[in-house]
Write a structure and sequence with these properties.
alpha+beta; 8-stranded antiparallel beta sheet; 27 strands; disordered N terminus
Length: 549
Protein backbone atom coordinates (compact mmCIF):
# COMPACT_ATOMS: atom_id res chain seq x y z
CA UNK A 1 0.00 0.00 0.00
CA UNK A 2 1.48 3.29 -1.06
CA UNK A 3 1.87 5.94 1.63
CA UNK A 4 -0.02 9.18 1.17
CA UNK A 5 2.86 10.85 2.88
CA UNK A 6 1.86 14.46 2.33
CA UNK A 7 -1.39 13.94 4.19
CA UNK A 8 0.25 11.83 6.90
CA UNK A 9 2.99 14.38 7.55
CA UNK A 10 0.68 17.35 7.52
CA UNK A 11 -1.83 15.70 9.83
CA UNK A 12 0.92 14.71 12.26
CA UNK A 13 2.09 18.32 12.41
CA UNK A 14 -1.36 19.87 12.85
CA UNK A 15 -0.98 20.66 16.54
CA UNK A 16 2.72 21.46 16.36
CA UNK A 17 2.73 23.63 13.27
CA UNK A 18 -0.77 25.11 13.33
CA UNK A 19 -2.16 23.11 10.41
CA UNK A 20 0.77 23.98 8.17
CA UNK A 21 0.33 22.79 4.60
CA UNK A 22 -3.20 21.43 4.99
CA UNK A 23 -5.22 21.41 1.82
CA UNK A 24 -7.56 24.39 1.82
CA UNK A 25 -11.16 24.42 0.68
CA UNK A 26 -11.46 28.14 1.33
CA UNK A 27 -9.01 30.56 -0.23
CA UNK A 28 -10.81 33.61 1.20
CA UNK A 29 -8.47 36.13 2.78
CA UNK A 30 -5.25 34.43 1.70
CA UNK A 31 -2.13 36.62 1.73
CA UNK A 32 -0.37 34.43 -0.81
CA UNK A 33 0.31 35.53 -4.34
CA UNK A 34 1.77 33.80 -7.35
CA UNK A 35 4.13 35.65 -9.67
CA UNK A 36 4.47 33.32 -12.60
CA UNK A 37 3.06 32.46 -15.97
CA UNK A 38 4.16 28.86 -15.51
CA UNK A 39 1.01 26.73 -15.46
CA UNK A 40 2.80 24.05 -13.42
CA UNK A 41 2.69 26.25 -10.32
CA UNK A 42 -0.74 25.62 -8.91
CA UNK A 43 -2.61 26.15 -5.70
CA UNK A 44 -5.67 24.05 -4.96
CA UNK A 45 -7.77 26.68 -6.71
CA UNK A 46 -5.54 28.94 -8.77
CA UNK A 47 -8.45 31.13 -9.84
CA UNK A 48 -8.58 32.57 -6.31
CA UNK A 49 -4.93 33.64 -6.44
CA UNK A 50 -3.97 37.04 -7.80
CA UNK A 51 -0.90 37.62 -9.93
CA UNK A 52 1.62 39.89 -8.19
CA UNK A 53 4.69 41.80 -9.29
CA UNK A 54 8.11 40.41 -8.33
CA UNK A 55 9.39 41.42 -4.93
CA UNK A 56 11.69 44.44 -5.09
CA UNK A 57 14.87 43.68 -3.17
CA UNK A 58 16.16 47.23 -2.92
CA UNK A 59 13.74 48.67 -0.36
CA UNK A 60 14.69 46.64 2.72
CA UNK A 61 17.46 47.56 5.14
CA UNK A 62 20.00 45.07 6.49
CA UNK A 63 18.71 42.43 4.12
CA UNK A 64 21.54 40.77 2.22
CA UNK A 65 20.70 37.28 0.98
CA UNK A 66 23.63 34.90 0.80
CA UNK A 67 23.45 34.85 -3.00
CA UNK A 68 22.10 37.81 -5.01
CA UNK A 69 19.33 36.84 -7.39
CA UNK A 70 21.38 37.77 -10.44
CA UNK A 71 24.05 35.28 -9.33
CA UNK A 72 21.83 32.24 -8.80
CA UNK A 73 23.29 29.13 -10.45
CA UNK A 74 20.11 28.51 -12.45
CA UNK A 75 17.27 30.34 -14.21
CA UNK A 76 13.70 29.91 -13.11
CA UNK A 77 10.38 31.34 -12.01
CA UNK A 78 9.88 33.42 -8.88
CA UNK A 79 7.13 32.31 -6.51
CA UNK A 80 5.86 34.84 -3.96
CA UNK A 81 3.98 34.03 -0.78
CA UNK A 82 3.38 36.93 1.60
CA UNK A 83 6.93 38.21 2.28
CA UNK A 84 8.58 34.96 1.15
CA UNK A 85 10.06 34.62 -2.30
CA UNK A 86 11.86 31.65 -3.86
CA UNK A 87 12.81 30.71 -7.43
CA UNK A 88 11.87 27.34 -8.89
CA UNK A 89 14.37 26.16 -11.54
CA UNK A 90 13.31 25.81 -15.17
CA UNK A 91 14.04 22.08 -14.90
CA UNK A 92 11.01 21.81 -12.60
CA UNK A 93 8.58 23.14 -15.20
CA UNK A 94 5.44 20.99 -15.28
CA UNK A 95 6.62 18.84 -12.37
CA UNK A 96 5.41 20.56 -9.19
CA UNK A 97 2.45 22.08 -7.39
CA UNK A 98 2.21 24.56 -4.53
CA UNK A 99 -0.41 24.04 -1.83
CA UNK A 100 -0.90 26.92 0.59
CA UNK A 101 -1.85 26.69 4.24
CA UNK A 102 -5.38 27.66 5.19
CA UNK A 103 -3.84 29.47 8.17
CA UNK A 104 -1.83 31.70 5.84
CA UNK A 105 1.44 30.70 7.52
CA UNK A 106 3.21 28.85 4.72
CA UNK A 107 3.07 26.58 1.71
CA UNK A 108 3.92 23.02 0.67
CA UNK A 109 5.66 22.05 -2.56
CA UNK A 110 4.63 18.74 -4.11
CA UNK A 111 5.72 16.57 -7.02
CA UNK A 112 2.78 16.53 -9.41
CA UNK A 113 3.43 13.03 -10.80
CA UNK A 114 3.16 11.36 -7.38
CA UNK A 115 0.25 13.56 -6.33
CA UNK A 116 -1.75 12.56 -9.40
CA UNK A 117 -1.36 8.88 -8.49
CA UNK A 118 -2.08 8.80 -4.75
CA UNK A 119 -1.86 12.39 -3.45
CA UNK A 120 1.72 11.88 -2.21
CA UNK A 121 4.82 13.69 -3.55
CA UNK A 122 5.51 16.04 -0.59
CA UNK A 123 8.90 17.72 -1.13
CA UNK A 124 9.11 20.51 1.45
CA UNK A 125 7.09 22.97 3.47
CA UNK A 126 8.09 26.59 4.24
CA UNK A 127 6.50 28.26 7.24
CA UNK A 128 6.57 31.75 8.75
CA UNK A 129 5.87 32.08 12.47
CA UNK A 130 6.27 34.53 15.33
CA UNK A 131 7.51 31.69 17.56
CA UNK A 132 9.82 28.74 17.14
CA UNK A 133 7.77 25.54 17.08
CA UNK A 134 9.18 22.04 17.14
CA UNK A 135 10.73 21.23 13.76
CA UNK A 136 9.94 17.61 12.94
CA UNK A 137 12.48 17.15 10.17
CA UNK A 138 14.01 20.38 8.89
CA UNK A 139 15.69 23.58 10.01
CA UNK A 140 15.48 27.34 10.26
CA UNK A 141 16.21 29.03 6.90
CA UNK A 142 16.04 32.71 7.94
CA UNK A 143 14.80 34.93 10.75
CA UNK A 144 14.11 38.53 11.72
CA UNK A 145 13.58 39.98 15.21
CA UNK A 146 9.85 39.27 14.77
CA UNK A 147 9.59 36.14 12.62
CA UNK A 148 11.29 32.81 12.09
CA UNK A 149 11.15 31.00 8.73
CA UNK A 150 11.56 27.24 8.64
CA UNK A 151 11.69 24.50 6.03
CA UNK A 152 10.46 20.99 6.78
CA UNK A 153 10.95 17.76 4.85
CA UNK A 154 9.22 14.36 4.70
CA UNK A 155 9.82 11.95 7.56
CA UNK A 156 9.14 8.88 5.44
CA UNK A 157 8.78 7.75 1.82
CA UNK A 158 6.61 10.41 0.21
CA UNK A 159 6.41 9.52 -3.46
CA UNK A 160 5.30 6.69 -5.77
CA UNK A 161 8.38 4.57 -5.20
CA UNK A 162 7.32 1.58 -7.33
CA UNK A 163 7.31 3.66 -10.53
CA UNK A 164 10.92 4.10 -11.64
CA UNK A 165 10.29 7.21 -13.72
CA UNK A 166 8.35 9.00 -10.97
CA UNK A 167 10.81 7.87 -8.32
CA UNK A 168 13.85 9.14 -10.23
CA UNK A 169 12.16 12.46 -10.93
CA UNK A 170 11.26 12.90 -7.25
CA UNK A 171 14.79 12.09 -6.09
CA UNK A 172 16.24 14.59 -8.56
CA UNK A 173 13.82 17.29 -7.40
CA UNK A 174 14.49 16.55 -3.73
CA UNK A 175 18.23 16.89 -4.30
CA UNK A 176 17.61 20.31 -5.86
CA UNK A 177 16.03 21.68 -2.67
CA UNK A 178 19.46 22.43 -1.18
CA UNK A 179 20.11 24.71 -4.16
CA UNK A 180 16.64 26.28 -4.20
CA UNK A 181 17.09 27.33 -0.56
CA UNK A 182 19.78 29.73 -1.76
CA UNK A 183 17.15 31.65 -3.76
CA UNK A 184 15.20 32.56 -0.61
CA UNK A 185 14.42 36.25 -0.12
CA UNK A 186 12.38 37.67 2.76
CA UNK A 187 10.75 41.05 2.15
CA UNK A 188 11.44 42.35 5.66
CA UNK A 189 14.10 44.46 7.34
CA UNK A 190 16.94 42.96 9.39
CA UNK A 191 16.86 39.43 7.93
CA UNK A 192 19.56 36.95 8.93
CA UNK A 193 20.14 34.29 6.29
CA UNK A 194 23.39 32.89 7.75
CA UNK A 195 21.59 30.12 9.59
CA UNK A 196 24.10 27.45 8.52
CA UNK A 197 26.68 29.11 10.76
CA UNK A 198 24.59 28.82 13.92
CA UNK A 199 23.83 25.86 16.13
CA UNK A 200 20.64 27.61 17.30
CA UNK A 201 19.62 30.21 14.70
CA UNK A 202 17.60 33.04 16.20
CA UNK A 203 18.36 32.17 19.82
CA UNK A 204 18.67 35.89 20.49
CA UNK A 205 14.98 36.40 19.64
CA UNK A 206 13.22 33.03 19.98
CA UNK A 207 13.09 30.46 22.76
CA UNK A 208 14.19 26.90 22.03
CA UNK A 209 12.09 24.62 24.22
CA UNK A 210 13.45 21.41 25.69
CA UNK A 211 11.68 19.47 22.94
CA UNK A 212 13.42 21.67 20.35
CA UNK A 213 16.79 20.85 21.89
CA UNK A 214 16.40 17.08 22.06
CA UNK A 215 17.53 16.64 18.46
CA UNK A 216 20.89 18.33 19.05
CA UNK A 217 23.96 16.42 20.18
CA UNK A 218 25.68 17.10 23.48
CA UNK A 219 28.63 18.76 21.78
CA UNK A 220 26.37 20.93 19.63
CA UNK A 221 24.68 22.22 22.78
CA UNK A 222 28.04 22.99 24.41
CA UNK A 223 28.79 25.19 21.40
CA UNK A 224 25.28 26.66 21.45
CA UNK A 225 25.85 27.98 25.00
CA UNK A 226 28.94 29.85 23.87
CA UNK A 227 27.15 31.00 20.72
CA UNK A 228 24.68 33.02 22.78
CA UNK A 229 27.56 34.96 24.35
CA UNK A 230 29.40 35.25 21.02
CA UNK A 231 26.44 37.13 19.55
CA UNK A 232 27.34 39.94 21.97
CA UNK A 233 30.98 40.10 20.83
CA UNK A 234 32.42 38.15 23.75
CA UNK A 235 36.13 37.35 23.60
CA UNK A 236 36.82 33.80 24.82
CA UNK A 237 40.62 33.64 24.99
CA UNK A 238 40.87 34.44 28.70
CA UNK A 239 37.72 32.63 29.85
CA UNK A 240 39.27 29.23 30.48
CA UNK A 241 37.18 26.13 29.75
CA UNK A 242 38.64 25.80 26.25
CA UNK A 243 38.57 29.53 25.61
CA UNK A 244 41.32 29.32 22.98
CA UNK A 245 39.27 26.74 21.09
CA UNK A 246 36.02 28.72 21.18
CA UNK A 247 37.82 31.88 20.09
CA UNK A 248 39.14 30.03 17.05
CA UNK A 249 35.72 28.50 16.42
CA UNK A 250 33.87 31.83 16.39
CA UNK A 251 36.63 33.62 14.48
CA UNK A 252 35.59 31.30 11.64
CA UNK A 253 31.98 32.54 11.74
CA UNK A 254 31.34 35.35 9.29
CA UNK A 255 28.71 36.92 11.58
CA UNK A 256 31.00 37.08 14.64
CA UNK A 257 32.45 40.42 15.69
CA UNK A 258 35.05 40.25 18.45
CA UNK A 259 34.31 43.27 20.63
CA UNK A 260 36.75 42.08 23.30
CA UNK A 261 33.71 42.09 25.55
CA UNK A 262 33.12 40.32 28.83
CA UNK A 263 29.50 39.15 28.85
CA UNK A 264 27.67 37.72 31.86
CA UNK A 265 24.35 35.92 32.21
CA UNK A 266 22.77 39.13 33.51
CA UNK A 267 23.77 40.97 30.32
CA UNK A 268 21.59 38.66 28.22
CA UNK A 269 17.98 39.14 27.20
CA UNK A 270 15.19 37.21 28.87
CA UNK A 271 14.87 34.91 25.85
CA UNK A 272 18.62 34.24 25.81
CA UNK A 273 18.62 33.45 29.52
CA UNK A 274 15.73 31.05 29.03
CA UNK A 275 17.60 29.39 26.17
CA UNK A 276 20.68 28.95 28.35
CA UNK A 277 18.57 27.42 31.12
CA UNK A 278 16.92 25.00 28.69
CA UNK A 279 20.30 24.06 27.19
CA UNK A 280 21.65 23.24 30.66
CA UNK A 281 18.64 21.01 31.37
CA UNK A 282 19.11 19.14 28.10
CA UNK A 283 22.86 18.74 28.70
CA UNK A 284 22.13 17.20 32.09
CA UNK A 285 19.63 14.84 30.49
CA UNK A 286 22.12 13.78 27.83
CA UNK A 287 24.90 13.26 30.38
CA UNK A 288 22.61 10.90 32.29
CA UNK A 289 22.09 8.82 29.14
CA UNK A 290 25.77 8.46 28.22
CA UNK A 291 27.42 5.04 28.44
CA UNK A 292 28.99 4.35 31.82
CA UNK A 293 32.22 6.28 32.37
CA UNK A 294 34.19 6.52 35.62
CA UNK A 295 37.59 8.02 36.25
CA UNK A 296 40.07 5.86 38.18
CA UNK A 297 42.46 8.10 40.07
CA UNK A 298 46.13 7.38 40.56
CA UNK A 299 46.39 4.85 43.41
CA UNK A 300 42.66 4.18 43.60
CA UNK A 301 41.05 0.70 43.57
CA UNK A 302 37.55 0.05 42.26
CA UNK A 303 35.45 -3.11 42.16
CA UNK A 304 33.56 -3.87 38.93
CA UNK A 305 32.65 -6.82 36.70
CA UNK A 306 34.80 -5.76 33.78
CA UNK A 307 34.67 -9.03 31.78
CA UNK A 308 30.97 -9.81 32.19
CA UNK A 309 31.42 -13.15 33.95
CA UNK A 310 29.17 -12.19 36.86
CA UNK A 311 31.99 -11.65 39.36
CA UNK A 312 33.59 -8.31 40.18
CA UNK A 313 37.30 -7.67 39.65
CA UNK A 314 39.48 -5.43 41.82
CA UNK A 315 41.06 -2.85 39.53
CA UNK A 316 43.83 -0.39 40.42
CA UNK A 317 45.75 2.16 38.40
CA UNK A 318 49.04 3.72 39.54
CA UNK A 319 52.53 4.83 38.59
CA UNK A 320 55.25 2.22 38.92
CA UNK A 321 58.05 4.80 39.08
CA UNK A 322 61.13 5.25 36.85
CA UNK A 323 62.42 2.09 35.22
CA UNK A 324 64.97 1.21 32.58
CA UNK A 325 66.45 4.70 32.72
CA UNK A 326 63.29 6.40 31.40
CA UNK A 327 63.34 8.99 34.17
CA UNK A 328 61.46 11.58 32.10
CA UNK A 329 58.34 9.48 31.73
CA UNK A 330 55.82 7.87 34.02
CA UNK A 331 55.20 4.16 34.00
CA UNK A 332 51.48 3.46 34.47
CA UNK A 333 50.39 0.08 35.73
CA UNK A 334 46.93 -1.51 35.73
CA UNK A 335 46.35 -4.15 38.39
CA UNK A 336 43.41 -6.57 38.06
CA UNK A 337 42.86 -8.98 40.96
CA UNK A 338 46.49 -8.57 41.94
CA UNK A 339 47.92 -9.23 38.47
CA UNK A 340 50.02 -6.27 37.31
CA UNK A 341 50.02 -5.18 33.67
CA UNK A 342 52.87 -2.85 32.73
CA UNK A 343 50.93 -0.81 30.18
CA UNK A 344 53.93 1.47 29.71
CA UNK A 345 55.82 -1.48 28.16
CA UNK A 346 56.34 -0.36 24.56
CA UNK A 347 56.62 -3.85 23.11
CA UNK A 348 53.50 -5.23 24.78
CA UNK A 349 51.16 -2.26 25.27
CA UNK A 350 52.84 0.85 23.91
CA UNK A 351 51.60 3.55 26.33
CA UNK A 352 54.12 6.38 26.66
CA UNK A 353 53.14 9.07 29.11
CA UNK A 354 54.55 12.16 30.80
CA UNK A 355 51.81 12.25 33.43
CA UNK A 356 49.62 9.70 35.22
CA UNK A 357 47.08 11.52 37.38
CA UNK A 358 43.44 11.51 36.23
CA UNK A 359 44.21 9.71 32.99
CA UNK A 360 42.51 6.33 33.40
CA UNK A 361 38.79 5.74 32.77
CA UNK A 362 36.49 2.77 32.99
CA UNK A 363 34.08 3.11 30.07
CA UNK A 364 31.45 1.25 28.14
CA UNK A 365 32.58 1.43 24.54
CA UNK A 366 28.94 2.00 23.62
CA UNK A 367 25.73 1.77 25.60
CA UNK A 368 24.42 -1.27 23.69
CA UNK A 369 27.37 -3.68 23.52
CA UNK A 370 27.86 -4.10 27.27
CA UNK A 371 31.64 -4.16 26.72
CA UNK A 372 33.75 -2.39 29.32
CA UNK A 373 37.21 -1.09 28.56
CA UNK A 374 39.93 0.73 30.44
CA UNK A 375 40.88 3.90 28.57
CA UNK A 376 44.18 5.65 29.23
CA UNK A 377 44.93 9.17 28.01
CA UNK A 378 48.37 8.87 26.47
CA UNK A 379 50.47 11.94 25.64
CA UNK A 380 53.01 9.95 23.69
CA UNK A 381 56.67 10.83 23.12
CA UNK A 382 55.78 13.81 20.89
CA UNK A 383 52.77 15.02 22.87
CA UNK A 384 50.49 13.33 20.34
CA UNK A 385 47.26 12.87 22.25
CA UNK A 386 45.68 9.43 21.91
CA UNK A 387 43.33 7.37 24.06
CA UNK A 388 44.48 3.75 24.44
CA UNK A 389 41.83 1.12 25.14
CA UNK A 390 42.29 -2.17 27.01
CA UNK A 391 39.73 -4.97 27.32
CA UNK A 392 39.96 -7.68 30.01
CA UNK A 393 39.15 -11.07 28.50
CA UNK A 394 40.24 -14.64 29.19
CA UNK A 395 41.85 -13.43 32.43
CA UNK A 396 44.29 -11.14 30.68
CA UNK A 397 44.46 -7.49 29.62
CA UNK A 398 44.30 -7.04 25.83
CA UNK A 399 45.25 -3.88 23.94
CA UNK A 400 42.26 -2.98 21.71
CA UNK A 401 43.99 -0.14 19.93
CA UNK A 402 43.56 3.59 20.28
CA UNK A 403 41.54 6.59 19.17
CA UNK A 404 43.43 9.81 18.38
CA UNK A 405 42.74 12.64 20.81
CA UNK A 406 41.71 12.68 24.47
CA UNK A 407 38.18 11.33 24.33
CA UNK A 408 37.25 11.74 28.01
CA UNK A 409 39.53 14.39 29.48
CA UNK A 410 37.74 16.90 31.73
CA UNK A 411 39.82 19.58 29.99
CA UNK A 412 38.60 18.56 26.54
CA UNK A 413 36.08 20.79 24.81
CA UNK A 414 34.52 17.85 22.98
CA UNK A 415 33.07 15.03 25.06
CA UNK A 416 33.91 11.58 23.74
CA UNK A 417 30.29 10.54 24.05
CA UNK A 418 29.02 13.77 22.55
CA UNK A 419 26.89 11.98 20.01
CA UNK A 420 24.24 9.48 20.99
CA UNK A 421 26.20 6.85 22.87
CA UNK A 422 27.04 4.51 20.01
CA UNK A 423 30.23 6.17 18.79
CA UNK A 424 33.22 7.84 20.42
CA UNK A 425 34.55 11.16 19.15
CA UNK A 426 38.27 11.58 18.60
CA UNK A 427 40.56 14.19 17.07
CA UNK A 428 42.30 12.90 13.95
CA UNK A 429 44.59 14.49 11.35
CA UNK A 430 43.92 15.03 7.65
CA UNK A 431 46.30 16.24 4.95
CA UNK A 432 43.97 17.59 2.28
CA UNK A 433 44.26 20.39 1.41
CA UNK A 434 46.47 21.12 4.45
CA UNK A 435 47.52 19.40 7.65
CA UNK A 436 44.58 19.93 10.00
CA UNK A 437 43.00 18.53 13.13
CA UNK A 438 39.50 17.21 12.54
CA UNK A 439 36.79 15.50 14.55
CA UNK A 440 36.19 11.87 13.66
CA UNK A 441 33.85 9.16 14.99
CA UNK A 442 34.89 5.66 16.01
CA UNK A 443 32.86 2.55 16.83
CA UNK A 444 33.85 -0.61 18.66
CA UNK A 445 33.89 -3.85 16.70
CA UNK A 446 33.44 -6.67 19.27
CA UNK A 447 34.32 -9.34 16.69
CA UNK A 448 37.70 -7.82 15.92
CA UNK A 449 38.08 -6.32 19.42
CA UNK A 450 39.14 -3.03 17.90
CA UNK A 451 37.93 0.48 17.12
CA UNK A 452 37.05 1.46 13.57
CA UNK A 453 36.80 4.90 11.99
CA UNK A 454 33.12 5.27 11.04
CA UNK A 455 33.21 8.94 10.00
CA UNK A 456 31.07 9.95 7.05
CA UNK A 457 33.10 13.15 6.96
CA UNK A 458 35.78 14.88 9.00
CA UNK A 459 34.91 18.25 10.54
CA UNK A 460 37.76 20.74 10.90
CA UNK A 461 38.54 21.56 14.52
CA UNK A 462 40.14 24.96 13.90
CA UNK A 463 38.86 27.78 11.71
CA UNK A 464 41.73 29.02 9.58
CA UNK A 465 41.11 31.88 7.17
CA UNK A 466 42.53 31.44 3.67
CA UNK A 467 42.52 34.08 0.95
CA UNK A 468 41.64 32.87 -2.53
CA UNK A 469 44.47 33.43 -4.99
CA UNK A 470 42.14 32.94 -7.95
CA UNK A 471 38.44 32.55 -8.72
CA UNK A 472 37.14 29.19 -7.51
CA UNK A 473 34.09 27.43 -8.91
CA UNK A 474 32.22 25.49 -6.21
CA UNK A 475 29.26 23.14 -6.36
CA UNK A 476 26.20 23.34 -4.12
CA UNK A 477 26.22 19.56 -3.71
CA UNK A 478 29.08 17.23 -2.95
CA UNK A 479 27.91 14.51 -5.31
CA UNK A 480 27.70 16.48 -8.57
CA UNK A 481 28.39 19.82 -10.28
CA UNK A 482 24.97 20.52 -11.81
CA UNK A 483 24.72 23.84 -9.93
CA UNK A 484 27.85 25.92 -9.40
CA UNK A 485 28.81 29.28 -7.94
CA UNK A 486 32.04 31.27 -8.08
CA UNK A 487 33.98 32.34 -5.01
CA UNK A 488 35.94 35.39 -6.11
CA UNK A 489 39.69 35.97 -6.01
CA UNK A 490 40.64 37.91 -2.87
CA UNK A 491 37.75 36.53 -0.80
CA UNK A 492 38.49 34.74 2.46
CA UNK A 493 37.29 31.16 2.75
CA UNK A 494 37.09 28.66 5.59
CA UNK A 495 37.31 24.87 5.41
CA UNK A 496 34.34 23.13 7.04
CA UNK A 497 34.74 19.40 6.41
CA UNK A 498 36.06 16.78 4.00
CA UNK A 499 35.72 13.09 3.28
CA UNK A 500 39.48 13.12 2.50
CA UNK A 501 38.78 11.33 -0.77
CA UNK A 502 36.37 13.16 -3.06
CA UNK A 503 35.30 16.55 -1.71
CA UNK A 504 36.16 19.56 0.42
CA UNK A 505 33.30 21.58 1.95
CA UNK A 506 34.06 25.27 2.48
CA UNK A 507 32.36 28.65 2.86
CA UNK A 508 33.19 32.19 1.79
CA UNK A 509 33.04 35.37 3.85
CA UNK A 510 29.36 35.84 2.92
CA UNK A 511 28.49 32.49 4.47
CA UNK A 512 27.82 30.72 1.16
CA UNK A 513 28.66 27.01 1.42
CA UNK A 514 30.10 25.10 -1.52
CA UNK A 515 32.06 21.99 -2.45
CA UNK A 516 35.09 21.31 -4.63
CA UNK A 517 36.24 17.93 -5.84
CA UNK A 518 39.58 16.70 -4.60
CA UNK A 519 41.80 13.83 -5.62
CA UNK A 520 42.72 11.05 -3.21
CA UNK A 521 46.45 10.73 -3.98
CA UNK A 522 49.24 13.02 -2.87
CA UNK A 523 51.14 15.20 -5.29
CA UNK A 524 54.89 15.44 -5.60
CA UNK A 525 55.40 18.44 -3.32
CA UNK A 526 54.94 17.58 0.38
CA UNK A 527 51.24 16.96 1.03
CA UNK A 528 49.95 18.92 -1.94
CA UNK A 529 47.21 17.45 -4.04
CA UNK A 530 45.72 18.47 -7.33
CA UNK A 531 42.22 19.87 -7.49
CA UNK A 532 40.53 17.54 -9.95
CA UNK A 533 38.36 20.37 -11.29
CA UNK A 534 41.03 22.88 -12.25
CA UNK A 535 44.29 20.97 -12.35
CA UNK A 536 45.78 23.53 -9.98
CA UNK A 537 47.74 22.77 -6.87
CA UNK A 538 46.02 23.79 -3.70
CA UNK A 539 48.86 26.19 -2.97
CA UNK A 540 47.90 28.00 -6.19
CA UNK A 541 44.32 28.36 -4.96
CA UNK A 542 44.49 29.00 -1.21
CA UNK A 543 46.83 31.38 0.63
CA UNK A 544 48.45 30.33 3.88
CA UNK A 545 48.03 26.55 3.85
CA UNK A 546 49.72 24.79 6.78
CA UNK A 547 51.75 21.61 6.29
CA UNK A 548 53.34 19.49 8.99
CA UNK A 549 56.60 17.67 8.59
Amino acid sequence: MKKKQLLLVLLSMTMLLASCGKESDDRTGTRASKNTTDASVETEDSSDTNTAAPISMDSYTNNNPLIPRDQLPYSGTEYVYDDISIVFPDSWDGKYQVQESDNNDGFAVIQTASYNVDESGFLFYIQKSDKLDYILNGHVIAYTPEYVYTIEFPTDVSYVYDDDEISEEYQSMFNDIKVIENSLFIAEDDVNYKVNEYILPGSDYFVYSESNLEEFSYNDLVHAKKEIYARHGMNFESTGEGGWYFQSYFDGMTWYEDKNATVSYDDLSKNEQENLDNIEKELESKEASFPYCQIIYDGETISVDIDGDGASEEISYYDNGPENGHDLYFHPVISIDGEEYQVWDQEQYGVWMDDVADHCYLVEVDKYSGVYALAILDYGPSDDEVTDFFVYKNDTLVNSGYIPGFCFSPDSVINGFGGYGITITGVATVWLPETSSVYACYSYNPTEDSFEDCSAEYVYKYSREHELLQDLEVSFRSEDRDYTYTFKKGENVYFISTDQETYLKLKNEDGVIGYINIGSSYGDDEYLDMDSNTGEKFTDIFEGLVFAG
